[in-house]
Write a structure and sequence with these properties.
By secondary structure, the chain is mainly α. The chain is built from 9 helices and no strands. Helix content is about 65%, strand content about 0%. The C terminus is likely disordered.
């Protein structure tokens, strides 16, 4: 088979699979916080509202969405960002979540080819992507996502570190420990000083999970990138909204995740973006 044809066939399947995962990411972002916070619609029994059931529905009119109106990316464009039944706007984040998932999958393949390294890069980003959106919307970093990221990081460290995928096991464990402690110390100090949580323990667990993937040396870099990005964002928001930076409350998880992605790109900067 012609090499170009094979390449584009592979890209087609990468996009298809990534789009499906992007759609599932939206399911997690919408349902997981409601399951954890008990905010599911009162008309739905708790035993029938979870990740799997009910079928996709419009949050505004509660109408079940037919499969042909639930195709990742394409359905949003076809419906022009509106529900087909009640015509209420569909939040733009649904499209952005799916688009971001597809773009990172393509970047991973362009960087590493169809390899375990590309798959691990995608999984790492995917969990961070979902966690970041949940934290941005609900100020919540679910333990289940942090533990999944940590667990997969340990598996990668044990199984594939010799192939350049992830950190070696000792480095992964030390990175996880440092990632947790380096944020737990200011968390505990601020709690004792002000009686308030300046950070959440979810942030500590998230950085620990990232440290497990990227190793101990990467943790300070990730935290530095996160702090700089959060500071820039906070100053801009405070300026635009005419608020004091001191009273501004922003989720830190998305910035930790962004710092981890920047660190990952820098770690693999010797790879060319295009093949």
């Amino acid at each position: 088979m012609n090499h170009d044809v094979l390449f584009w066939m592979n890209m087609f399947w990468v996009v298809l699979c990534a789009a499906a995962f992007g759609s599932f990411a939206n399911v997690l972002i919408y349902r997981l916080p409601r399951m954890l916070l008990g905010e599911e619609n009162s008309s739905r029994d708790k035993n029938t509202f979870n990740i799997a059931v009910p079928a996709s529905f419009c949050p505004q009119c509660q109408h079940a969405i037919q499969w042909w109106l639930n195709i990742p990316l394409l359905s949003f464009i076809y419906l022009r960002g509106q529900c087909a039944y009640c015509h209420q706007p569909i939040p733009m984040r649904y499209f952005l979540v799916e688009l971001g998932t597809v773009l990172w999958a393509l970047l991973s393949v362009f960087w590493f080819g169809l390899t375990w390294q590309a798959l691990s890069s995608f999984v790492f980003f995917y969990v961070l992507w979902v966690a970041s959106w949940i934290d941005a919307l609900y100020f919540l970093l679910p333990d289940v996502l942090n533990y999944v990221l940590l667990g997969i990081g340990l598996v990668v460290a044990m199984a594939f570190a010799h192939n350049g995928v992830g950190a070696a096991l000792v480095d992964a464990l030390s990175g996880a420990a440092l990632g947790y402690v380096i944020l737990w110390i200011p968390y505990f100090a601020y709690l004792k000083w002000r009686g308030l949580e300046g950070l959440g323990l979810g942030d500590c667990k998230l950085l620990a999970s990232i440290g497990c993937w990227q190793g101990m040396v990467a943790v300070p870099n990730v935290l530095l990138f996160a702090c700089v990005l959060a500071l820039i964002f906070g100053v801009l928001v405070a300026f635009l909204r005419h608020h004091s930076v001191r009273t501004l409350k922003i989720p830190f998880g998305p910035f930790i995740s962004a710092g981890a992605v920047i660190q990952m790109v820098l770690m693999h900067s010797h790879f060319k973006l295009f093949v």
